[in-house]
Amino acid sequence: MHLPAPSSALSPAEEALMRGHPWFAACAPLLQEHLLRAGRRVSLGAGQALFERGDRPEGLCCVLSGALQVGAAQADGRPSLLAWLEPGQWFGEISLLDGRPRTHDAVAEGASQVWLVPHAGLQAWLEQHPACWRDLAVLACAKLRLSFEVLEDIARLPLSQRLAKRLLLLDQGYGQRAPGGVPRPLRLPQEQLALMLGVSRQSVSKALQALAAQGLLALGYGEIELLDRAALQALGEAAGEGA
User: Fold this and answer.
1) Rounded-to-integer distance, Cα 196 and Cα 210, Å
2) Residue 120 Rama label (left phi>0; alpha psi -120 to 50; beta)
3) Which of 1, 209, 220, 235 has most Cβ atoms within 10 angstroms of its Cβ?
4) Residues 192 and 81: beta-carbon distance below 8 Å
5) Does the pLDDT value for residue 169 go beyond 90?
6) Within the chain, where are the H helices?
7) H or E, element range at 179
8) Given a cut of 90, is residue 35 above it in pLDDT?
9) Do residues 114 and 14 lie in contact, with contact meaning Cβ atoms separated by under 8 Å?
10) Distance from C-alpha of 106 to C-alpha of 85, rounded to nearest angstrom
11) List of residues 6+ apart from 85 with CB closer than 8 A
12) 49, 46, 63, 174: which is closest to 110 by C-alpha?
C-alpha cells in the first residue's frame, strides 16, 4: 500500500507522550532515541488505511493523535475489530520480528497521525544492537498474553463480565498507558465496542446500560466514562474465580 507522504518531526509534547508510556519507558535508552529520531509522521484521514492485511511490512508504528482500528473483514464480509489504538500505543512489531506480511488492517477512525519507524532501517539498526531485539519481543509477548486472556474470556464469561474487562483494558491502553494518569472518558462508539466483543450493538448497549444503572460508568455520545474502576475490576476478578 502507498503511504501518504511523510511530514514534520515529533513535537516536544509528542515526544513526552511516548516517553511516558510503560513499554517505551522500559526500553533500552539507545532504542528509545532511535525510535524517536528515525521515524516519520504519517497523516491519515477518516477511514484511510495505514496498512492492510497482506501488505509488506513498512515499519514499527506509534499513534500520535486520533485513533486506529485494527481488524479485518471476515470471509462472509462482516467486519471484525481486534483493537482500538490511541495516542502513545505502539504496534506493528509482529511483522518487524518475522518479516512476514501484515496480519490485519489498521484504519484511521478519524483524522489521525502515526509515527512510523521504517522497517529496513530499523532492522539494520537492530542488527547492530541485537540486545534491543528483546524489547520488541517484550512488546509482542505482552499482546500475546492479552490475546490468550481474551480467547479464554470468550469461551467462559458472560457478556457483562467480558465487557467490564474490555473497558478496563481499553482504559489502560492495553497495558501501554502510564499508571496514575488523569482519568478520561473512552472515546469509543458502541458499534466499535460491539465489533471488538463479537456481539450485536443492541447487546452491548443493554450491557452498558446495566453497568450504568449500577453506577459503574456513565454513557455519553460516542464516549464512555468509567466511574468505578475498582468495582469493574472486582467484577472481572470474580469472573476469573468462576463466579
Assistant:
1) 19
2) alpha
3) 235
4) yes
5) no
6) 12-19, 22-26, 29-37, 93-98, 119-128, 133-156, 159-171, 190-197, 201-213, 229-240
7) none
8) yes
9) no
10) 9
11) 63, 67, 68, 69, 70, 91, 106
12) 46
Owner of C-alpha cell 518531526: 9
> 102 and 1 in contact (C-beta within 8 Å)?
no
> Quick one: pLDDT band at residue 243, thresholds 50, 70, 90?
very low
Axis-axis angle for helices 29-37, 12-19 (nearest 10): 150
> Phi and psi at residue 219, in whole multiples of 5°?
-105, 130
Alpha-carbon gap, residue 20 to 227, rounded angstroms: 24
Cell matching residue 109? 477512525
| Structure-block grid coordinates of residue 230 | 475498582
Length of the chain: 243
Residue corresponding to grid cell 497521525: 113
CA distance 164 to 226: 10
What would the grid cell of residue 28 be?
533500552
Q: Residue 27: phi, psi to the nearest 5?
A: -70, 160
Residue type present at position 3: L
pTM over 0.85: no
pLDDT tens string 121-150: 999 999 999 999 999 999 999 989 988 888
Least confident of 24-33, 83-92, 164-173: 164-173
Distance between CA 85 and CA 17 in Å, rounded? Answer: 14
